[in-house]
Amino acid sequence: xxxxxxxxxxxxxxxxxxxxxxxxxxxxxxxxxxxxxxxxxxxxxxxxxxxxxxxxxxxxxxxxxxxxxxxxxxxxxxxxxxxxxxxxxxxxxxxxxxxxxxxxxxxxxxxxxxxxxxxxxxxxxxxxxxxxxxxxxxxxxxxxxxxxxxxxxxxxxxxxxxxxxxxxxxxxxxxxxxxxxxxxxxxxxxxxxxxxxxxxxxxxxxxxxxxxxxxxxxxxxxxxxxxxxxxxxxxxxxxxxxxxxxxxxxxxxxxxxxxxxxxxxxxxxxxxxxxxxxxxxxxxxxxxxxxxxxxxxxxxxxxxxxxxxxxxxxxxxxxxxxxxxxxxxxxxxxxxxxxxxxxxxxxxxxxxxxxxxxxxxxxxxxxxxxxxxxxxxxxxxxxxxxxxxxxxxxxxxxxxxxxxxxxxxxxxxxxxxxxxxxxxxxxxxxxxxxxxxxxxxxxxxxxxxxxxxxxxxxxxxxxxxxxxxxxxxxxxxxxxxxxxxxxxxxxxxxxxxxxxxxxxxxxxxxxxxxxxxxxxxxxxxxxxxxxxxxxxxxxxxxxxxxxxxxxxxxxx
Length: 556
Description:
Porin; globular; single chain; mainly beta; disordered N terminus; 24-stranded antiparallel β-barrel
């Protein structure tokens, strides 16, 4: 059956269901959805290494349609990459049906057949999700069952294959099969004596396994690999803490060079929150925890799980794009601390409108690998052992930052930020122009001014200094908003400290946008430097470009 015919059948089924259920006057059916289209027209720019593709124009587009009637639900997504935009993974190609599902849910049961997204706990053992900006989609294709047999108990089960690529207009799934169960128990709802307790307690446990046939003649590979663990969350008044630990059986793969070590992932958070003050401390311990449904894949392909990043999410241009943090599933010990404090209005520092200070510190280190006592490790391919939260002196990443937000009047505010970022380029491979640790200092001054009810202007002045890589950078951004429909911005990213004088380039880019209700139209023209684009510790490389990008989004 052709992909076009499948697409037509899927659309007809949804329309037919809408008609049938539409005859019921009670519980009227609802159809919702959204769409996005991005078109690029690219120019040649030899100075920054930007190439013009043979097609000159590139396009990504998709549309989601979701149907609900009483307990019934269905959905589908049409995707088109003709061809995909610059920097998108090559496993996105063609036009066709990229997602479809049917299901039913009520207060007791929620069943989905087809594609679905789901997460157990923090996602360290299982997370099926998509991120359109990254070009990431590991949707499961199979069965998801959620049962709530009593108040305070949620049981989940998943079974299927995760998405590998979208090629020739159709989804191609992974070679491996994924199975998993998760149970979460809120003790304050389950145990009558705890219903009025100030201490809130939740316990949960998960198990996920994958199956893939042994495809090697030189090794004996485990065809079934299991990961299992549990989590606990406690909250008392203004304090809360949660801890999750996952153990994974030996899982030889491309990522770990086919060793037979077991793996672990642990995440611990503790926080305190009250009016004007918030404190968060976090720690993560990971070793040999790349978990894929196909042992022979790499990059972001067919991942079963997600390792949460242990750093603050940055949005400023120089901070977020030059030296971004990347999670290291092979192994890392990471720590983070953050404090947010707001000075009261009317105090000497708070002033008339208040002042907020935020400080954040995050680090990631290589784990200690204990190799003593391993006699002839080549015989069983178990080479070392690691202990929980046992870090070495090898730094992967460090980020020390703070920002001060001050509102001076009803119309004018200012934010000053400082970032000290150190990144080990031998591990993260950010650039080919430096070795070892790259140290950088970044200063940002952001201002906002409300001219009148509908007009406002925002500016950013950024400076990055470093003695390695491509040297010093500066960025200036000016953004003008005409509420509720229009916005304009101009940004210049200038590599003024590049050791090669002819490469001291201005990356100038302009943006025009129009918003009408649930529709948004954006026109962008200019230069974009080559680099990593990262979201939540997951990154993809984006080549340099020079040209026009048109983006349209709409929801209904």
